[in-house]
Design goal:
This protein is of the alpha+beta class. It has one domain (3-115): Ubiquitin-like (UB roll), CATH 3.10.20.30. 17% of the residues lie in helices and 17% in strands. Strands 2-1-5-3-4 form a five-stranded mixed beta sheet. The chain is globular and about 45 Å long.
């Protein structure tokens, strides 16, 4: 059975192969959402993008769905929607990855910083 390690929470959980990553997190009281997203999310339908996580090995999860590709394709293979990902192998997961260094430090916002926004 695959081992899912939630890095920020320092928690490793053994899950059955094919388990939904969002369900695994919520069943183990790992909050994927920051307020107000905890109230205003799509409940796992892949519509809102608020359950975004970063994984160490994208091959440890199922292939990207079309929804996941639309929401995260521009960020690279290691950014996934937890609700659209099934666990196939051992994987380390960083929840709320943009808040690790602060959202303006994410490479996506480099142009904004140069413009002084």
């Amino acid at each position: 059975m695959p081992l899912v390690t939630f890095v920020k929470q320092e928690l490793s959980i053994e899950v059955p192969e094919g388990a939904n990553l969002r369900d695994v997190a919520l069943e183990n009281k790992i909050d994927l959402y920051a307020f107000p997203d905890s109230l205003l999310n799509c409940r796992g339908r892949g519509l809102c993008g608020t359950c975004r996580v970063q994984v160490d090995d994208h091959r440890a999860l199922s292939e990207r769905t079309i929804t996941d590709e639309k929401k995260n394709g521009w960020e690279g293979k290691t950014y996934r929607l937890a609700c659209q990902s099934q666990v196939l192998d051992d994987v380390s997961v960083v929840t709320s990855p943009r808040r690790v260094r602060g959202w303006m430090d994410h490479s996506t916002y480099a142009t904004m910083k140069k413009q002084g926004a």
